[in-house]
Design brief:
Elements: H1 2-16, E1 19-25, H2 44-52, E2 54-56, E3 59-60, H3 65-74, H4 78-81, H5 100-106, E4 110-116, E5 134-138, E6 157-160, E7 163-166, H6 171-188, E8 193-198, H7 210-217, H8 223-248, E9 255-261, H9 285-288, E10 292-295, E11 305-307, E12 311-312, H10 316-323, H11 341-345, E13 355-358, E14 373-376, E15 379-382, E16 386-389, H12 405-422, E17 432-434, E18 442-445, H13 457-462, E19 470-474, E20 478-485, E21 519-524, E22 530-533, E23 541-547, E24 550-559, E25 565-568, E26 571-576
Parallel strand pairs: 1-8, 1-9, 2-11, 3-12, 4-5, 4-8, 17-19
Antiparallel strand pairs: 2-10, 5-6, 6-7, 9-10, 13-14, 14-15, 15-16, 18-26, 19-24, 20-23, 20-26, 21-22, 21-24, 24-25
């Protein structure tokens, strides 16, 4: 009887918890929606969601992608959680903090990621290492990143956990399809779930489906904008499929759905930017004002409405924890974000007086005031001294710091306090672990070079960099095989050849230059480099080193027949012997 009651109690607990679906688009800006006034782009289904949701109109993300994703997953500012920039080896979250999927998993939810992770491709930074139980994903920032290289929007190569598979459909359709397939199983098992649908569109390369491009090709002169809009149109169609599926499966009422973007627009500003200054990468409003729609029909949140309270992507995790009564382990680092529960359920809500920081770490290393913004209601302190009043100047055209010196100083003091709290840790680089049983080998790429900006296939194709160090941590002491390659290992491409001229789906790409590589060298912790000739298959250079347990740096180079260094080693594979 006791066992029967326990099973029944667990079932009640499982079925009473709402499901959570989080959708994040990639490089769609605030103005890239019909509901936000875009005169060309058609998003009828997302516009419908807009009308059904609580909408945060003063919501802020990061100006670029990895920092936003780390902030979303941890509730901590980018330079505090350490995933502070896209390239340069500073794109990994620290290992001693809680993550959103980890919190959901610890509270009895099934957790699934479908699409883009962009917070690490090797142990212990892969999505399955950080709390996701089901993972269908791609590596890197997108399908033209240095690690995906020849991947394709139309016939996408992807990872099912760690198994390489090839799809017969458009990438966005794939992520939605696999998410719904997985959620079907959770519903059948009466298991509450947290589903993260993280899209790699409308990010470049701008390859919309022909039918979606055709809707906009005749309306704009820039074909990349037409593709950009076509990609968003496809997202709109996929959201409609998801919404219909939710109704058919009977989970519409008890599913908390969040729709948001990751940073400012990458192309849409050419047509419409909602009156804002700046775009992706900018510290001005157009770089970080975000979309945030929250819908939970069964959650007693009241009527759909707009909330203009200053809010941040760092608020999402603490808000979900508060709303769903999720238990969170105590760590050394409390959230930078706060719960927005009172704003969502309209109880005890005061909307004035909050300050926020927006900042990422540049393309090389964190710098004080680099494209920073302090947000205080309708005020913006950009950088060290530019002050804007968005209630009168939404386009940030008139610096009023000279008229409000006390406010300018107060906001700068707030920023200085934040910077003082993270400055010392800025020199620390999160390491990639080698020699752990979680993976048979560890692949390192040029995107992991510390303080070197080299994160896409065009950079690799050009071959013009002497590289940088890889920050690693040896899990076990002993000998390691280190292989150096000109091209991604899965290509099995000769060291001395050019790159591919097309993607796996036939789209043309730059094949780049052939380097006259005859040998390679490797330095450990800055020591004298060891050297070896190309392997007999001419696709790699194989060396062997001894590592003690702990942190180390590796750096590899290619040499020509004279022994001269001609480039850094763009790819490395490290295997414990």
């Amino acid at each position: 009887m006791w066992l029967f009651l326990l099973v029944c109690w667990n079932l009640v607990q499982a079925t009473s918890h709402p499901n959570v679906i989080l959708i994040v688009t990639d490089d769609q800006g605030y103005g890239d929606l019909g509901a936000h006034g875009n005169p060309i782009l058609q998003t009828p289904n997302l516009d419908k969601l807009h009308g059904e949701s609580i909408r945060f109109s003063n919501f802020h993300v990061s100006p670029v992608c990895t920092p936003m994703r780390g902030e979303l997953m941890t509730g901590l500012y980018a330079l505090r959680n350490k995933a502070g920039m896209v390239p340069a080896g500073r794109n990994l979250m620290r290992k001693d903090i809680v993550t959103m999927p980890g919190v959901f998993a610890e509270n009895g939810y099934a957790t699934g990621l479908f699409g883009k992770w962009h917070l690490g491709d090797a142990y212990p930074h892969r999505p399955m290492d950080r709390g996701f139980q089901r993972v269908v994903w791609h590596k890197g920032w997108g399908l033209a990143s240095e690690i995906e290289y020849d991947n394709d929007y139309y016939y996408t190569r992807y990872l099912d956990e760690m198994e390489v598979k090839y799809s017969d459909r458009f990438c966005t359709n794939l992520w939605f399809d696999t998410a719904m397939e997985w959620m079907d199983g959770q519903i059948d098992s009466e298991q509450p779930f947290f589903t993260y649908i993280a899209l790699n569109t409308p990010h470049s390369p701008f390859h919309a489906l022909a039918k979606d491009f055709a809707k906009y090709g005749h309306q704009v002169s820039d074909s990349s904008v037409a593709h950009f809009f076509g990609l968003i149109d496809n997202i709109d169609q996929n959201y409609a499929r998801l919404d219909l599926w939710m109704n058919e499966r009977g989970i519409h009422e008890n599913t908390l759905l969040i729709f948001m973007n990751d940073n400012g627009t990458a192309r849409g500003e050419k047509i419409f930017n909602a009156g804002m200054r700046g775009k992706k990468g900018s510290g001005y409003e157009g770089g970080h004002r975000g979309i945030l729609f929250v819908r939970w029909p069964g959650g007693k949140l009241g009527n759909p409405r707009e909330v203009d309270y200053a809010s941040s992507v760092t608020d999402i995790l603490p808000t979900l924890a508060d709303m769903l009564d999720l238990k969170i382990p105590k760590t050394e680092f409390p959230f930078d974000g706060i719960s927005l529960k009172s704003a969502l359920d309209n109880t005890d809500f005061s909307k004035n007086g909050r300050k926020l920081i927006v900042q990422f770490g540049s393309r090389f290393r964190p710098q004080k005031f680099f494209r920073s913004c302090v947000i205080f209601d309708h005020w913006r302190l950009n950088g060290k001294s530019e002050l804007y009043d968005l209630s009168k100047d939404p386009g940030q055209e008139h610096d009023v710091s000279d008229k409000f010196p006390e406010l300018t100083k107060a906001l700068r003091d707030y920023y200085n306090e934040y910077w003082d709290s993270i400055e010392e840790s800025n020199t620390f680089i999160e390491s990639i672990v080698v020699g752990n049983d979680a993976e048979p080998f560890t692949d390192l790429t040029c995107n992991n070079w510390v303080e070197v900006d080299f994160d896409n296939r065009n950079h690799v194709a050009g071959g013009e960099s002497m590289g940088g160090v890889w920050q690693i941590e040896a899990d076990k002491s002993g000998f390691y095989r280190v292989e150096l390659a000109r091209w991604p290992f899965f290509m099995k491409r000769a060291l001395t050849t050019t790159g591919p001229s097309t993607t796996i789906g036939g789209m043309p790409i730059e094949e780049g230059v052939a380097l006259p590589i005859t040998s390679g060298s490797l330095s450990v912790d800055g020591s004298q480099a060891i050297q070896a000739n190309a392997h007999k298959d001419n696709t790699r250079i194989v060396l062997e080193v001894e590592l003690s347990v702990g942190r180390h740096t590796l750096q590899g180079w290619f040499h020509d027949a004279s022994g001269k260094k001609i480039a850094g080693a763009f790819y490395s594979r490290v295997t414990k012997l």
